[in-house]
Design goal:
Elements: H1 28-31, H2 37-47, H3 65-80, H4 89-101, H5 103-110, E1 148-152, E2 160-164, H6 166-182, E3 196-200, E4 208-211, E5 225-230, H7 241-249, E6 253-256, H8 258-269, E7 278-281, H9 288-298, E8 302-308, E9 312-317, E10 323-325, E11 330-335, E12 347-354, E13 362-376, E14 379-386, E15 392-394, E16 400-402, H10 403-412, E17 415-422, E18 428-434, H11 442-453, E19 457-461, E20 476-478
Parallel strand pairs: 3-5, 3-6, 6-7, 7-8, 17-20, 18-19
Antiparallel strand pairs: 1-2, 4-5, 8-9, 9-10, 10-14, 11-12, 12-13, 13-14, 15-16, 17-18
């Protein structure tokens, strides 16, 4: 279905936030305070291409000249800094600071549970549930006039709104440049190509064109343009536009996750001519076969970047042999089920202390993912990392649909948690956990899934979160086969 004005339809009534340009508030000058007229023209040119998709959002990096100077210092530190293998001094400094400035830890100090000199390993862990009270984790002494809001869907289904700072968001691009350079790849500004495409493949997604003013380089170099692009055919105005746009963009770096990457590889096999400098995988586990397929198709390095919205990037693998903790203010521990440290080489839960986002310093944050930790010439390395695995569901017409779509639907219908399971014969079951104190209709959520897959859905409502399993349960499972 397409609308008469050529914009993509909203796939479900509950997903109104994905209506095209439904919440545009800033001007381009406010989005990119340092971008010159030529840079703004390049952004407009990519927005206005006749083969462009129906853009859903308008966004910018909000960086001013002082921010860019901070990011240049960040770039210099990355070039010189190695990942520590012993607890760095900034960890103790962070412990002291949060006990003075962060409401949760100030309360702990008043009650005598911990204090500014408590060793890190003696502090309680922080969980995703703790962050539902975001204000309790924001330092009292930071100005709030530059807060950006990020969202994290997580694995239990309950979304988090994460306060972000423009500099910490832009620092992720600086880190990405550092990681790409570490593979030996060259990523110079190129005004004729998109510098970066963040690629998704789902029914509803925020898509936009932006400028990467944090990219750096010579003062006379053009500021690269990037875009967040959805591969789903429903968001493109005409047949063939998707392929024409991507071929014209020929993005230097493709940032995506496993399922959209597989779709892009299929398009490349069908004739889409791309020449990426590097491919970056995030959000889901990267099977070795997919890494090999990228190398065979494009001959470029793959950076498998592991992190969470709450923490930012944690570790990266450029060769498939372990994820090296990134050279930032990130410290990783591995804990057992009782919250005790395990010896190096033993598997446990990845727990992160991070001081990169001034709005959200985190002590001992439990990721729910597991790995073993080793220390070698590369620094601190996570081995056998098991994080988020992509899941696909089979619709009645034989098409496959990503679990990301299901996440959006079930969150939009107000569920706090769920388990969505498809049996080998295609039968679908939804175990729904409503949010306490909020009136929701789990049956309506089941109906939305039924429309999505064109299959009947059996709904079971539960009230106890433990029903969904301990820690970070698998929200999705599909045993469906092609011929079901």
């Amino acid at each position: 279905m397409r609308t008469t004005d050529g914009t993509a339809p909203v796939p479900d009534p509950a997903l109104g936030e994905y209506a095209a340009m439904g919440s545009v508030a800033l001007t381009d000058a406010e989005r990119w305070p340092t971008l010159d007229r030529d840079g703004l023209a390049r952004v407009d040119a990519w927005r206005g291409r006749p083969d462009a998709p129906a853009w859903v959002h308008a966004t910018g990096d909000r960086l001013d000249a002082a921010d860019l100077a901070v990011l240049e210092r960040t770039r210099a530190r990355l070039a010189q800094q190695a990942t520590p293998t012993v607890e760095p001094a900034w960890v103790a400094e962070l412990v002291a600071r949060v006990h003075a400035d962060v409401p949760r830890w100030r309360r702990a100090a008043r009650e005598g549970r911990s204090g500014p000199t408590t060793p890190l390993q003696d502090l309680p862990t922080t969980t995703r549930a703790d962050l539902t009270d975001a204000a309790a984790h924001v330092p009292l002494d930071v100005p709030l006039d530059r807060v950006l809001e990020g969202s994290s869907s997580g694995h239990t289904g309950a979304a988090l709104n994460v306060p972000l700072h423009p500099v910490s968001v832009a620092a992720d691009l600086v880190l990405l440049q550092h990681l790409v350079a570490s593979t030996g790849a060259d990523w110079p500004p190129d005004p004729d190509r998109l510098g970066l495409v963040n690629l998704v493949d789902q029914r509803a997604s925020f898509t936009y064109v932006s400028a990467m003013t944090a990219f750096g380089g010579p003062s006379d170099a053009p500021v690269p343009v990037m875009a967040r692009v959805n591969l789903d055919p429903s968001v493109w105005r005409s047949a063939g536009d998707r392929e024409r746009f991507l071929a014209a963009a020929d993005p230097q770096v493709i940032s995506t996750s496993t399922l959209p990457l597989l779709q892009l590889l299929d398009l490349a096999r069908d004739g889409l001519d791309l020449h990426p400098v590097a491919v970056v995988n995030g959000a889901t586990d990267l099977p070795p076969a997919v890494r090999d397929a990228v190398a065979a198709r494009w001959g470029c390095p793959v950076v498998d970047l592991y992190g969470l919205r709450e923490t930012g990037p944690i570790a990266a693998s450029t060769d498939g042999h372990g994820h090296v903790v990134v050279p930032r203010r990130v410290w990783v521990e591995i804990l057992d089920d009782q919250g005790r440290s395990v010896p190096d080489g033993e598997r446990g839960e990845v727990v992160v202390t991070v001081d990169e986002n001034p709005y959200l310093p985190l002590l001992r944050y439990r990721t729910g993912d597991t790995a073993a930790l080793v220390r070698d010439h590369r620094g601190t390395v996570l081995v056998g990392l098991q994080g988020r695995a992509p899941v696909r569901f089979l619709a009645a017409d034989g098409s496959w649909h990503s679990s990301i779509d299901a996440t959006q639907l079930l969150q939009a219908y107000g569920l706090a948690g769920w388990e969505l399971v498809q049996a080998a014969d295609g039968v679908v079951r939804l175990t729904a956990l409503p949010l306490v104190g909020v009136t929701v209709d789990p049956a309506a959520a089941g109906d939305a899934i039924a429309r999505w897959l064109d299959r009947p859905v059996r709904v079971e409502v539960v009230t106890d979160p433990s029903t969904l399993g301990p820690g970070k349960p698998r929200r999705f499972r599909s045993d469906a086969q092609e011929d079901s």
